[in-house]
## 1
Amino acid sequence: MLKALIFDVDGTLADTERDGHRVAFNRAFAAEGLPVVWDEALYGRLLGITGGKERLLHFFTRVRPDLRPAGDLDVLIRHLHARKTDIYSDLLNTEGVPLRPGIRRLLTEARDRGLKLAIATTTTEKNLEPIWAALGPQARGWFHTVGAGDCVAAKKPAPDVYEYVLAGLGLPAGDCLAFEDSENGLRAATGAGLDTIVTVTDYTRAQDFSAALLVVDHLGEPDRPMVRLSGTAFAGRMLDVDALMALKIARA
């Protein structure tokens, strides 16, 4: 029985990495007078580290230690990340959030069919505000459980955030489906026992998704059919609730 859908955010609900988070990081560096620019290629590599603060620490200690600023690095990272979060929020509130194809359609249908919705992300809860705004004024209330930011100590690929969300939903993993866009996210979801559908992005397309239930380019719309890339055989043009239930049965 399918009772709940659990969504990652960045790259899954919305395509926010390249022109959202990356831009906000760069503006935060500039505002602090740091000679750091994360271009698209570098940012793609840094996405292998989940969590913004963790990504900053990795960059300044492993990638470019020569650019490490003087002083307490932990304090600087907390400050940089807070500033980046404010910039990111302002950026998306001004320019809007590009929801991925099929997201609004599937969320609406799932609610109408009585399925619970949940969020499992490493992004901070403040960064969800533009997502709620893009979906509509009542969107926060659509989600039964939200696991975000530092609600758990271990970030993806650890399964902790999914285990947190499953506990909040009060459901076993077998009654749920997860939606992710990255290998780290897939590892986190499957580590919690969840069947997972992956919607790839330009940053993640070449990653290992062999453990996914299904891998597609997006969820599909009536006028914009999805493309199955790998996983369970599926010939439909888009993923709706009936299709998700059929995929669960096929997996069983």
## 2
Amino acid sequence: MNTITMNAEANFAKLGLTLPPAPTPLGVYKPFLIDGKYLYVSGHGPVQDDKSLIIGRIGRELDMEQGKLAARQVGLTILSTIKTHVGELDKVKRVIKVLGMVNCTPEFERHPYIINGCSELFAAVWGEENGIGVRSAVGFGSLPDNIPVEIEALFELY
């Protein structure tokens, strides 16, 4: 086992960030599913510590930096789901894939910059070798509840 990924809990603690409560499904889906050594995480939004959502469209109510912070908050929400339902972050071997959806104005074109908020968090937790996977970052005309970012991810477990 790689010592960088086995220190994911310690790496997260060094960041000084807190995890919001893991969200519960508001529709007919599972927040996560484990199939063999793979952990699939459904699309998550930016849940805050008080369980409220960050709201707003990037390019209208939110600027790029606020959007990037919202994507980091989605990453924290995903980490919360992992800790709540799977256990320690050290159980994740690596990030395989991230799909980032950005609620933005039609003129906005910096979707990858926004999703970097989540990708940089994962790289800090699991290291650059195992914390960065393949990724898509795309713009949408709307997202549920007018959240600025929704992200789903696939991880490999030990």
## 3
Amino acid sequence: MAARRTRALFTARWLALLIPAALLGGAYVGQYVYGLYPCEMCWWQRYPHFAALALALLAFAVKGGAARACVILAGLAILISGLIGGFHAGVEYGWWEGITSCSSTIQASGGGDFLDAIMKAPIVRCDQVQWSLFGISLAGYNFLISVVGAAAIFFYASRRPA
């Protein structure tokens, strides 16, 4: 019985590490390989995943209750990212009003003119879907994966050893 509960924390640790790593990896592949530049709310979704990665790595370094606390905090960070993704998906689908700022990636290469780089930078709007599969945007997938993943992390982390 205790072995099963130890295995549950082991599973929670790995979920807390792999979920944000996979989602961030997918985001960066989309950005740098397929040219899907992030909008402001896309960036907001990434920050909690970075925190979750750090907390999950810390959970592997510590033992017992501290490890469980780190896993639960990582799960909370993943959940927060998912909720931001849900809000962002609602903005993309026109269910509610979003923020008014947009973001873009600006790079002046090799001594280039920054003004020229600013003028040619893509403007990424938060209310436009850049990519979707089965009618679900990237923000929607972040919502689904993060919320389900956080629930799984909380389930496994809540199984306390005897």
